[in-house]
Specification:
By secondary structure, the chain is an alpha/beta fold. It is built from twelve helices and twelve strands.
């Protein structure tokens, strides 16, 4: 069995299920576990996301999508050369990763046997659990997917019970993009509920909403957690002045109380895979530092000075 994964999260699922040896190709964003770096890359973005501000990136993406084009380019010749039996992709977001339409377009001219395309859609935690089973079913072992779900859910439940027993209930704003300003949606509101906190913006199962600074000032959250999509801590720190230069920033309760944080959104919060358990742990450490110590401080999150 030969597998090409075009999603960072599905690559992690494949590896956790014990099929890393069957991976023959990956997307340009698949970078964990580190051992997958040796695999051939089968995709690339149509612009350099490492360059430009959050506003520049947003405009480039919107321009491409407005022309009914994909944000990504599949290396069709490489994909054909690798001759996968299974290709894993997604239909959740045309911006986040290579989509099923991209994959179908890439393989439609193949004359030999067509690979099986496994399409994942992760709008909330239930969808994410289902995606684990879909991947495992493609390998003929759905029970392995169910076991992975149980492991993740049990870890999350233990964290949730402990957090809710604390009884503090802080209000929290999770920021998924700086400019335009976007609050985190999808599964992040579920995390906040699990931890017994109040979510300032965003709804479970819905895409991240655009908000205004007036909205933020009115809500005045106790804690602000930055988790820009696709960015690590260093990249976020380089762009953070987009937030800190805003009028009224210093008057926010979270700022005055030193409760503003930067996380590695790329490795954790934006990636609907098994390490969402780590993401919940990070939020627990941030929100209740006297009660949770998982060791994520530093590489996973930092307090904004």
């Amino acid at each position: 069995m030969r597998i090409v994964s075009l999603l960072p999260s599905s690559t992690e699922v494949v590896c956790r299920l014990g099929y890393e040896k069957n991976l023959v190709g990956r997307s340009h964003e698949c970078d964990y576990p580190l051992t997958v770096h040796k695999l051939p890359i089968c995709s690339e973005p149509k612009f350099d996301p490492s360059q430009g501000s959050s506003r520049d990136i947003d405009q480039q993406v919107k321009t491409i999508v407005a022309e009914s084009l994909s944000v990504y380019r599949i290396h069709t010749d490489k994909l054909k050369e690798l001759a996968p039996d299974i290709i894993i992709t997604q239909d959740h977001c045309e911006v986040c990763a290579v989509s099923v339409s991209d994959v179908k377009a890439a393989v439609c001219t193949w004359l030999k046997s067509q690979p099986k395309i496994v399409t994942l859609s992760s709008n909330n935690l239930d969808d994410i659990w289902k995606s684990f089973v879909l991947v495992a079913e493609a390998f003929g072992e759905p029970q392995k997917g169910q076991e992975l779900i149980r492991q993740c859910q049990n870890q999350m439940l233990a964290i949730s019970k402990k957090a809710k027993a604390i009884g503090e209930c802080p209000s929290i704003l999770c920021i998924e993009w700086f400019d335009p300003l976007m609050a985190a949606g999808n599964w992040i509101p579920e995390f906040i509920d699990m931890l017994g906190a109040k979510n300032a913006f965003g709804h479970a199962g819905e895409h991240s909403p655009i908000i205004t600074w007036d909205d933020v000032m009115k809500k005045d959250p106790d804690i602000i957690v930055n988790m820009p999509c696709g960015w690590d801590i260093k990249r976020s720190l380089n762009e953070i002045k987009v937030l800190t230069d805003q009028s009224g920033w210093k008057n926010l309760k979270a700022v005055k109380n030193g409760q503003v944080y930067i996380t590695d959104g790329h490795q954790y919060f934006n990636r609907p895979g098994p390490r969402l358990v780590d993401s919940l742990e990070i939020l627990a450490e941030i929100m209740y530092p006297k009660h949770f110590h998982f060791g994520h401080h530093g590489p996973g999150w930092q307090k904004l000075d």
